[in-house]
Specification:
The chain is mostly beta strands. Helices cover 13% and strands 38% of the residues. The strands form two sheets. Strands 3, 4, 5, 6, 7, 8, 9, 10 and 11 form a nine-stranded antiparallel β-sheet that branches. A two-stranded antiparallel ribbon has the order 1-2. The structure holds zinc ion. Zinc ion (ZN) binds next to loops.
Length: 163
């Protein structure tokens, strides 16, 4: 009889504990992110996607880690995700670029910009303007058209953005 009561009490405690665990920490955790959480701010058929290219200017194969979307010079670029700006300035490959740390090992890079509106260390929100499309001499191939260069990374791996 004593053993039966003990067993019942134990069972009740376990059930209560289980309920507590189910209710608390899930609210605090970020949902797992996928590449679809980092859409391109502009749409359309890409001029070029990620991959290797022979650069006439550099006379060598180069890995192009992003997607290029034709855009008129001066087009305003608004990010579609939030995060911390970890670089905003010139880049030897990408002209003027902005890199955003989006947390959880994800980062997004925007190249081919001008008139930056963000600085390093700044937090950006969805739809915030980071700059405008500028002209830069493209070294990956011979694209003369002004365009947004857009990269999504998870850790060391280039991700292919959804379109
Ligand atoms: Zn590019």
């Amino acid at each position: 009889m004593v053993l039966m009561i003990g067993a019942t009490l134990l069972g009740t405690q376990a059930w209560l504990k289980g309920e507590e665990v189910a209710l608390s920490p899930t609210i605090l955790q970020d949902p797992v992110k996928t590449v679809s959480d980092f859409p391109s701010p502009v749409q359309g058929k890409p001029l070029r996607v990620a991959g290797e290219y022979y650069s006439n200017k550099m006379e060598t194969m180069l890995f192009h880690p992003g997607t290029d979307y034709a855009q008129a010079e001066g087009a305003v670029i608004r990010v579609k995700h939030e995060g911390r700006v970890i670089y905003a300035g010139p880049d030897p490959f990408l002209g003027i670029k902005v890199e955003v740390d989006c947390g959880g090992d994800w980062s997004v890079i925007y190249g081919g910009l001008k008139n930056l509106r963000v600085k390093e260390g700044e937090w950006v929100e969805v739809d915030q303007v980071i700059g405008q499309i500028g002209y830069y001499p493209d070294i990956f191939g011979d694209i003369e058209q002004t365009h947004l260069h857009f990269e999504v990374w998870q850790g060391d791996l280039v991700q292919v953005p959804e379109r």
